[in-house]
Specification:
- It is built from 10 helices and 17 strands.
- It is α/β, with parallel strands linked by helices.
- The chain has 2 domains: 119 residues, Lyase, Ornithine Decarboxylase, Chain A, domain 1 (Beta Barrel), CATH 2.40.37.10; 200 residues, TIM Barrel.
- The strands form 2 sheets. Strands 1, 2, 11, 12, 13, 14, 15, 16 and 17 form a 9-stranded mixed beta sheet that branches.
- Helix 1 packs across helix 2 and helix 4 packs across helix 5.
- The longest helix has 18 residues.
- The two termini are 21 Å apart.
């Protein structure tokens, strides 16, 4: 907490040097096991300054779920291979072929559409077939994989360069030894049956850290898609910090607009708040209640972690109320927070939060 005059708030302070460091260390870590890194840029909206920090680490492939972000990165002159991280929209097939080098796929109708436009644009579009391993997000059922491959290899303009899986995102299913061994066996089967070399066998994301550190055999897994561990320095099964990484490459700073001693219990009959919830409030007596100029319209409040000894009490669309009795906040003071992934992605997309780069 500090007093700062004439400084824009709220602001997201982004330390690009720490991002580069984290990417370098993760490249070393996973590279020691023969696993390459694809940097995921969706959480930072394809921000060209952050992308430049990633490329300085030696990463050569960037992955994003949105064509608009990939277009933004390409237009900024960031030279890399670009992967579409989400199954292509049929309405965006032309742009997928125009702006991406490779895409993740699980729908035959979409792959056929990619083939048609790739031929029209006189290109070969690379694809990774996503396999459903239990998290119940995207993926071809393993029992259908051979049939899909048999049909796709007949399509012109399409090159199957890999298979992959997504775990721990939707249902929290861990990428453990059983899951990774099974993905490896599917890759071996596709090489044996169809002669596919599969330069990419993508085992997953930042949640794969625990498996990697404990496994004695990585099998055919040779690629991870990493976002949160690069930006926030942690693995994503338990949100434990990864040794040697910075966990504070991003910091959210906002400003105190009111600070008064008030009762902790409101006066009157309690109904629903602005968001349709009935508050549950504990009586702590009179406390120093400070209001910060940020709210749910700006960032995911539940994913903020105060760096000062304050307690988040409640938030509206544009106000955040904290108990500041232990730090005696004053109007005009700046208050800083570390961010979990939910806060990072909401802060990055918010037009109300200034982005300030530090190196």
């Amino acid at each position: 907490m500090n007093s700062t005059k004439n400084t824009t708030t709220p602001r997201l302070e982004i330390n690009t040097t720490k991002i580069t460091h984290n990417a370098i260390e993760l490249k070393k870590l996973y590279g020691s096991g023969g696993i390459g890194i694809i940097a995921v840029t969706k959480g930072v909206c394809g921000d060209p300054v952050i992308v430049d920090a990633l490329l300085k680490s030696g990463i050569t492939m960037l992955a994003d779920s949105r064509i608009s972000n990939i277009r933004r990165m390409r237009n900024a002159g960031n030279e890399a291979q670009y992967m579409l991280l989400r199954t292509p929209l049929l309405s965006q097939i032309d742009d997928v072929i125009s702006y991406t080098d490779i895409s993740l796929n699980s729908e035959l109708s979409v792959i056929k559409a990619l083939s048609k436009i790739a031929l029209k644009q006189k290109k070969i579009h690379k694809i990774v077939l996503m396999v459903e391993l239990g998290d119940l997000r995207e993926g071809i059922l393993p029992t259908d994989l051979d049939e899909i491959v048999q049909l796709v290899i007949k399509l012109d303009g399409i090159d199957i360069v890999g298979i992959g899986a997504n775990l721990a995102c939707l249902s929290g299913i861990k990428p453990d030894k059983q899951k990774m061994d099974y993905l490896s066996s599917l890759a071996i089967n596709l090489k044996t049956k169809f002669g596919l070399k599969l330069e990419i066998v993508s085992g997953g994301n930042s949640a794969n850290y625990t498996w990697f550190k404990s496994t004695e055999n990585i099998g055919r897994i040779n690629s991870f898609r990493l976002g949160e561990s690069i930006y926030l320095g942690c693995e994503t099964l338990y949100r434990e910090p990864i040794p040697g990484l910075f966990t504070d490459a991003f910091r959210l700073v906002t400003e105190v607009i009111e600070s008064k001693i008030k009762p902790s219990i409101p006066d009157g009959e309690i109904g629903q708040d602005a968001f349709g919830h009935v508050p549950s409030i504990q009586d702590k007596g009179d406390r120093l209640r400070s209001i910060l100029a940020i709210g749910k319209q700006d960032v995911s409040i539940a994913d903020l972690r105060p760096l000062d000894d304050i307690e988040i009490i409640a938030s509206g669309s544009d106000h955040l109320v904290v108990d500041a009795s232990n730090v005696n906040l004053k109007v005009g003071d700046n208050v800083a927070f570390q961010l979990n992934y939910g806060a990072l992605i909401s802060a990055m997309v918010s037009p109300y939060i200034a982005k300030v780069y530090i190196s």
